[in-house]
Specification:
This protein is of the alpha+beta class. It has one helix at residues 2-31, and strands spanning 44-48, 69-74, 77-78, 84-85.
Length: 86
């Protein structure tokens, strides 16, 4: 019984190690294309909308062919680190 318990613990440790290693690799690959962007009050920005979910900005006859980006909108206030009032 002691041997099987030790084998299970080793298996769990190995799984945790491989999971952590894979998560680090995935984060590294995702961070390659990310850029930190900051905006100031008065800058003009485009807003990316999901055409099937957000239909309040512009009514389109064909949602599939609708524009992804709307704007430009001026930034009125900076609310948080990544939140802005348009």
């Amino acid at each position: 019984m002691d041997r099987s318990l030790r084998a299970k613990e080793e298996c769990i440790q190995m799984l945790k190690y491989h999971l952590e290693r894979t998560q680090k690799r995935m984060k590294q690959q995702a961070d390659k294309r990310r850029t930190d962007r900051t905006f100031e009050v008065g800058d003009l920005v485009y807003v990316k909308l999901q055409p099937y979910k957000q239909q309040t900005v512009a009514a389109r006859t064909s949602q599939k062919l609708a524009a992804k980006f709307f704007g430009p909108f001026p930034i009125l206030a900076k609310i948080g680190a990544v939140a802005y009032r348009l």
